[in-house]
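thread: overnight batch results

M.L. [08:02]
morning all. the overnight job finished for the chain we discussed friday. pasting input first so we're all looking at the same thing
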Amino acid sequence: MRKEMSGQTATTKETPTDELLKMLKVTAGCRFIAAKRLANHDKKLTRVTALASSYVIGLTILPYFMKLSMQIADLYNLVTVGLSIVILVSSLLQYSNGDVVNAEQHHRSALEINELRRLLMLKAETAKEKELEDFTDRYNPVLQKYSINHDDIDFQQYKLERPEMYPWLDWKQRFAIRLLLAWDKHLATIVLFFMTVCFLGLILYGISQVAPH
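M.L. [08:03]
and the structure it wrote out:
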């Protein structure tokens, strides 16, 4: 059973048409969320790489403008190595994940699924079993056409955004989902903040050591 259907409990008796419409709605919604999340993730990795690169350049050229002690110069070199590792890791993650390509696939998949859903909604009142089978046969190739599936975090966000569809979620579950989403959303910002604080702290420390001369 696909992720988007996990954890759901039927509170009322649904017709096969209703179930198929819900499946299409949930899957498309999760795919749109996944597309936005991956696009933002790629932008965050780009910012981490760009900022770390600028800090490496700054720490490399700074000794040419200030007479630093050997201890401070070694500290600058050590931090430069650390930032270089950050650049390497973020670049590899960005290349291997292919978030831009995957985001485009998720978006296109969601558009095609929404198109099927709109067509089915027009026939919802009169849809026969054969017509539902035809829609299912058209739905499955869309899933197979796009070789990736959205992550569980996308389904968790969808549940949070659609409380009317998942009334059985208690406040503890919603809080846990919000924590998970916050971690995924702000991890890159935390890394950027930490790098910036370290960079500014090193500059101020270097200036304080050369000021008396």
